[in-house]
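Chapter summary example.
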Amino acid sequence: MMKWKKNTGKPQRHAGPGDYKECAVHRPVAVSLWLSKCNGMKWSMRFFILICVCTSSWFPSLAQSRPNILWIMAEDISPYIAPYGDSTASTPHINRLAREGIRYSNAFAVAGVCAPSRSAIITGMYPTSIGTHNMRTLKVYPNLGIPDYSVVLPPEVKLFPELLRRKGYYCTNNAKQDYQVKTPLSVWDESSGRAHWRNRQPGQPFFAVFTLEVTHESGIWTKKDDPLLVHPDSVPLPPYYPESPVIRKDVARMYSNIMEMDKQVGRLLQQLEEDGLLDSTIIFWFSDNGGPLPRGKREVYDSGIKLPLIVRLPGKQRAGTTESRLVSYVDLAPTILSLTGIPVPQYMQGQAFMGSQSKPPRKYIYAARDRMDSEYDRVRAVRDQQFKYIRNFHPEKPFMQNITYRMQMDMMKELLRLEQEGKLNEVQQLWFRKTKPAEELYDTHNDPYELHNLAGDARYAAKLAELREELDRWMQWTDDKGKIPEKQWVASMWPDLQQPRTSDPVFQPEKERVHITCATAGCVVSYQLVQRGKAPAKHWQVYTGPVTVGADQTLYAIAERIGYKSSAIQSFERSQ
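The structure predicted for these 576 residues follows.
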C-alpha cells in the first residue's frame, strides 16, 4: 500500500487509506469522498481517487481560500542569479524565494523584448496571433508612415486581471503596462506608482503586480556613473564578447542593478510579512524578457528568451524543488486563473501549468521577432527540451540591427568599434554577419550559447524536419500576422488609419435597478455610483449586472473596446 506524505505529493510505503484525510487543502472533501465511496470499491480505484484529490493539495484553490497573488516582475533579466548557477550578484531575497519555492528551469518568453512579451503575459495569447508582435505600437517611429496605434484585439480577448476583478479580486499594477494596447478601466483597480494591495477593502483577495525597472536595459547607461556593487574583473563574459574594460564595466553594471533589484524584492516580502499575508499569498518572481546586453534582449536565442521563474506557494509547499517542464509566458494568464478557480477562457492559447486546470507538460515552446523600433525583420523559433529551430524570413538582413535606442550603451559602441577594426574572433564575429542562413538549428544542451548551426548537418536531419514541421503547424494554428505588412495590418483594424470608436453605453431602468448595455461587440462597461451632483472619481467598477441606483445618486458609465476610442461617459439619475 501507499501513503501520500502531507503536502509533498511523494508516495511513501507502508500506509493505508486512513491517511487519505491528510490532504492539506481539501481535507474535508477528501474525508467525505473516502467515507462515501470506498465500500466495495477496489483498492486500485481508491488509490486513483486518492491521487486525484491529494495532488490538488500542491496548489491552493479559490473554492477553499481565494489565494492572494503577488507578481514581482524584474525587467530584462536572464537567469543571471545564484538559484540558476550564477552567484556573481548577491541576491539573498531571490535566493530565499528559491529555497522556499519552486524554481522553473525551462521558462521562456514568446519574444525577446518587452511589449510583445507583455502582451502575451496579459492576454494568454501569442502576439503573432493578435497583432501585437511589432515593437512597439503605442509609440511608433515617425519614419514608418503609420500612426501610434492600440491593437484591436479579437472581441472575446480580455486582459486577464479584468476576469479576476469580476470575481471580487482587488487588482493593482505598479506601474508599467506596455501591452501594445490602451488599457481599459476595467482591468485595474489601481495602476500607478502608488498602486498597492494595502489599498484594498479588508479581507479582499488581491492580485498585485510590481515591475522593478532598475534592471531595464536603459539602466546600463543611465546608471553608468553610479558606484558598482560588483567588480568588473569578477564578471563572467560569454564567448561572443571580446575582452574589454568597457564591456566588463557594463556587464558589472548589469549585475549591480540586479543587486539593487533584489533589495526591492526584499522590501515587498517584508511588507507581506508585516501584513501577515506571506502564507496566504502565491508569489511569482520572473522577468519580462532576456538580459539587457547585446545579443541578449530582442533575440530569439536563449539569451533573449530563456528566463528565470520562481514561484513560492503558501506554506512553502514544494520548497526548494526544481521543475524542468517547458513553460511559456503565454501560460501565465491561464495559470493565474487556474490557481484562483476561475475558468480559463477557451480562446486562450496558453495552458495552465499549476492549479486545478493545469495541463500536461508542453513538448515545445515558440518565439518570434518582428519590427524592433524602426527596424523590420521576421524571425520565428520553436524549441523542445534540447533543440531549437530558427527560421529567418529575411536572410538578406544582418543579424545585428542598428537599434538607435541600444546605441546609448557604451558596450554596444565598443563592440562596433572592435568589429570595424577587425579585432573580433570568429565566434565574436557571428552576430555581426551581414546576412543570415534561412534556417538555424542548435543543440542547447551541448551548445548553450547557440554558436554552432547544425541545420546543414545530416546527422540532425530528422530533428530539423520535426521542428520545421512543428513551426509550420504553430504558425498556421495561430494565423501568424507577421506575414501582413504593418501598414496593411493597421488599416485592417483602423479603416483609413483612423481609430474606431466604442458606442456609448445605454441605460435601461427596471424599478430600482438599472441595466447597462453597449452595441459594440467585445466592449466592456465600467461604472461608478456616486452622490448626486458629484463628478466621477478615478476608480471604476467592472459592470457585471444591474446596478441599484438611489434617488440621491448618479450612475456614471463608460464603454471600451480594446483598440477603439472609449465612449463618452454617460450618466443616469432617477427622476425626483
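To summarize the output: The radius of gyration is 26 Å.
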